[in-house]
Amino acid sequence: PRVVLLDEPTVGVDPQSRERIYEMLEALRERGTSVLLTTHHLEEAEARCDRIAILDHGRLIASGTLRELVDRTVGVGRVVVLILSRPVHQPVPGFETADGGRRLSARVSDVGADLPVLIARAHAAGCQIEDVEVLRQGLHEVFLHLTGTELRE
Q1: H helix intervals, the chain
Q2: Count of alpha carbons within 13 Å of 97, Cβ hemisphere only?
Q3: pLDDT digits (tens, 9 = 90+) for 81-95
């Protein structure tokens, strides 16, 4: 076929079957078939789709490549999260605190330059770092930015 329309093709599917579906979709794409996929699994859309359209209450509110959507909404920076071995009780400059003081987060534009500075700042504040996460802005953040974070009926 020239076009395949799929509505939530991997909902309720076991991991092996999901991978088989992905393989079949990729084979179709390689043969020049256009695939239109609807999904609420944002990571699936992010990994599998060349172009993304976001609908809210039946209305198209944004469309483009993942990069275009990120650029137009949340920006391409990263979020650095420091997981601490024990909670911090005083604010650490440049960080937001979460998880009862066990997680410090900061938005950065240059991970290589900014990460050492953030780690040094945390150490200077007496923090013991257990782990570090560097998170990129993705479709999840774009979707929440465009539609809001509150629960809906």
Answers
A1: 15-30, 42-48, 66-72, 111-124, 139-147
A2: 14
A3: 999 999 998 889 999
Per residue in 49-84, pLDDT tens?
999 999 999 999 999 999 999 999 998 889 999 999
Amino acid 6 reads L
150 touches 78 (CB < 8 A):
no
What single-letter DSSP state applies at residue 48?
A: H
Spatial separation of the C-alpha atoms in residues 40 and 44, rounded to whole Å: 8
**Residue 20 near residue 10, CB atoms below 8 Å:** no
Burial degree of 125 (CB within 10 A; 0-12, 13-18, 19+): middle
- Are the C-beta atoms of 147 and 56 separated by less than 8 Å? yes
